[in-house]
Structure to design on (228 residues):
């Protein structure tokens, strides 16, 4: 069975700083997808970024980028120039290629302070 | 293009009543997923449906819970004889024709059982 672990329950940084959220996963599969979702106080689940395991290049979406280390089974999210609107719960998620369900980590509560 | 719609956003039921949660996928999406989020936890997969078919219900409790996705109309998650432990946020997600596509989430339904 696949598991996803987020070892940082809470993090707090000042506005404009860079912050990195950690995620590790466990799987015996070789083809899979990894995701970061953001859940602001509104509780809506918003896709932040997605990575295909077969791609060596790290995914980037504006201020959000990932550090994907397949051998180490690590998938961290870096947020550059953090903004107050980045305050949210962040969930790392995993999905085997061809399977349907997402497996989520426990989440990291990120607070951006003014 | 409208996103995933869920209603109601909030639902209050007394123990023993029935709860019906509705989900309309994004336009063009034919795959629907239901997840449950208990307080301070990540999302847990419940069931995956395509039109008129339940494909994977491995995360669904064996009793009192059922789901459907009829040919016409929204997907429905039904909880009979609710208990306090059913209080949670229930999220619906949808994806496109290829089941490996990214899942896009609705705003969730927060169920409170008194």
């Amino acid at each position: 069975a696949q598991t996803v672990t987020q070892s940082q329950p809470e993090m707090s940084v000042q506005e404009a700083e860079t912050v990195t959220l950690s995620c590790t996963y466990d799987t015996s599969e070789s083809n899979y997808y990894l995701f970061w979702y953001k859940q602001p106080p509104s509780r809506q689940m918003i896709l932040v970024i997605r990575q295909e395991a077969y791609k060596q290049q790290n995914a980037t979406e504006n201020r959000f980028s990932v550090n994907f280390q397949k051998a180490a089974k690590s998938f961290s999210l870096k947020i550059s120039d953090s903004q107050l609107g980045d305050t949210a719960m962040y969930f790392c998620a995993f999905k085997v290629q061809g399977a349907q369900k997402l497996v989520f980590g426990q989440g990291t509560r990120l607070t951006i302070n003014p | 293009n409208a996103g995933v719609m869920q209603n109601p956003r909030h639902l209050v039921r007394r123990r023993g009543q029935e709860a019906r949660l509705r989900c309309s996928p994004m336009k063009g999406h034919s795959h629907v997923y239901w997840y449950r989020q208990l307080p301070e936890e990540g999302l847990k997969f419940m069931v995956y449906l395509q039109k008129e078919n339940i494909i994977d219900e491995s995360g669904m409790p064996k009793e009192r819970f059922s789901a459907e996705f009829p040919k016409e109309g929204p997907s429905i998650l039904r909880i009979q004889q609710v208990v306090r432990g059913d209080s949670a946020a229930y999220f619906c997600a949808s994806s496109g024709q290829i089941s490996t596509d990214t899942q896009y989430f609705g705003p969730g339904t927060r169920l409170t059982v008194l």
